[in-house]
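Next up, sample data.

:::
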Amino acid sequence: MDGMSGYGKWVAGSKTKWITLLVWIAIVGVLTMLWPSVNSQVLNNASNLPEDALSVQASAVAEQEFPAGSGVPALLVWHREGGLAEEDLVHIAAVYNQLEQQPLPHQNFVPPLGQLPPQALAASLSEDRSTFVSPVLFDKNAGSDQLGEALTALKQLISTETGADPSAAQTDSGDLSLRVSGPVGISVDATGLFENADVSLLIATVILVLVFLLLIYRSPILALIPLVAVGFAYGVTSPLLGKMAAEGWITVDSQAVSIMTVLLFGAGTDYCLFMISRFRQMLKVEENKGRALLSAITHSSGAIAMSGFTVVMALFALLLAKYGAYHRFAVPFSVSIFIMGIASLTLVPALLAIFGRTSFFPFVPRTPQMEIDRARAKGKTLPQPKPARRKGIGQLVVSRPWAIVGITVVILGVLASFSTGIKFTYDLLSSFPKTMESREGFELIGQQFSEGELAPVKLMVDTEGLNGGEDLKVVLGGLSYVDVVSDPQAGAVNSNIAGYDIEFKANPYSIEAMNHIPALRSTVEQALAESGIENVQDKVWISGQTATQYDTKELGERDTDLIIPVVIGLITLLLLIYLRSVTATVYLVATVILSFFSALGLGWIIIHYLLGADAIQGAIPLYSFVFLVALGEDYNIFMISNIWKKRKVMPLKQAIAEGVNETGSVITSAGLILAGTFAVLASLPIQVLVQFGIITAIGVLLDTFVVRPFLVPAITVLFGRLAFWPGKHEEVSETAQTAREY
């Protein structure tokens, strides 16, 4: 304890408080000047799949053997309600003629549509002659921002040619409309959504945290202290991550930066509140504000450090992921929480020391004697001693533990049972608003042609010179899930490799289409084997969006199966070291896991039955698990550490009752703020973030209002002395407690 008090004097003493503040200002200033911000180093087209993924290997073969079709396609969906006129087709041909003569930035290939008469183009119209789809292929290494600039130039060219703006025309207006879809359109739209989301997300998060803090503490100064701390933490985190990204040590994307901002405000404010609430408690029993702050630091710093370290370790576990988007989250999240933890333990105490009791103005906490002296000095009537506090939740938990454990486990268990019915999707398009350009284009393709035309699969087969290309086309055409198979093309380098463009009947981004990939591979390998070809597994390659999505799903499931047990193991180990109790560690981890599945179940009820979504994004269980288990354990650590300290000086049941009551208000406040910051994500127009926000906010609320105040303390009561096993627990009798107080 003396050691922690000593640390408190170093960061929040009468002189050192100013040194601490100046050090933080200097660090933020120097790093901001010397290193780039994280936002300037964002890379949104980084590969999510490793080099050994089958679809990545297939893409390399496609690029070598079929270079004309190896780019990433933007599909231009031309539409006029009632039918496209001959004049429209003349415009389309003229646009493609210009694209051949003056290619767009990063343009890879365009079909020679500019050389065809309108009658030839008309043969490719939809059945009702209202829709025409034409591709423009781009360099696959071009970033989303570069592709976005190319599409802007393309739309400008089309506007000049047609004398109108087809991109702005409604698809049902009767005018010529254009929607850019396909992988390029989807990628550009996704980046645009995140870029627009960043600023609105930050503003909404700051306002929400500020409003909550004002409502909780009713003090403008106190409401600003956590926000200042988060601002300083971000001021260090941003250039630090920017430097790491600039050096090529890490890759960051817009999604990671968006969620990192939310996490900083939510978790960061929580850690500040743990310190602030303890300081307010101490000011009511200690006249000297310096001693009160040192005592607050001593009592809360261990729990804050442990909570932060738990979250950092859990987030670092994402480094084990092979899937790029998961892996890229690990460093930004862990570094931001690590720095926020340091700010909570140094900058926040320094700010509290600078403002002292004024931090809480106009509701300044004072000792009873200070209140009496103040009243006398002002000539007011002496304040009446406040009546003893009513017993509260703590007493209820201590008196009815069996009933509380039974009721909470049944409620959480019923909610958790709904998680077994969750359906998952890896369809990025379903994550977009229905008015998004690429989604409107995709829906037009689905209505007028085959959905599979949006993103055909490229099948490449090494026939070893055997004349089976046409036979294989017949086999492929006979598959129930295949809509269209192209004629085989010979490879540019190895003429034995035959390439087929295959359109599935299903949405190429759906689970149904993804499941056709292994079936298609198996069918082709069997046909090759029957032709007498050996090592058939090395002679078949499948590329395209559906193959990429299939590998994404497989890799995501592999990562989830690996990382979830690792996170549980890490948190279990940290709790064992901190609590030195096997029993408590087991039930603390078990309650948070139960709470996670309950959040998934309740989230599915809201997302599926109330909001009407057919499935949730496949990445959500892993993201939600890492956040909820790590952050949920924070509240348990803060409350349990309080009970552990109290049981040394009072009977266990009294320690539990007082521990629950004392930590109740701060954990409730912290939980509401954290849930609120995640709920802000639900205001964005991106379904994957809406779903993540809803499930994580629900999980935080369940931890705050069910697991922490009721389930965990009730289980602790039931275990009694065994809760500390194998550590020692010396029972303090009521008599001994009374003697201590006097």
Residues 661 and 700 are 19 Å apart (CA to CA). Residues 1-5, 733-742 have pLDDT under 50 and may be disordered. The radius of gyration is 31 Å.
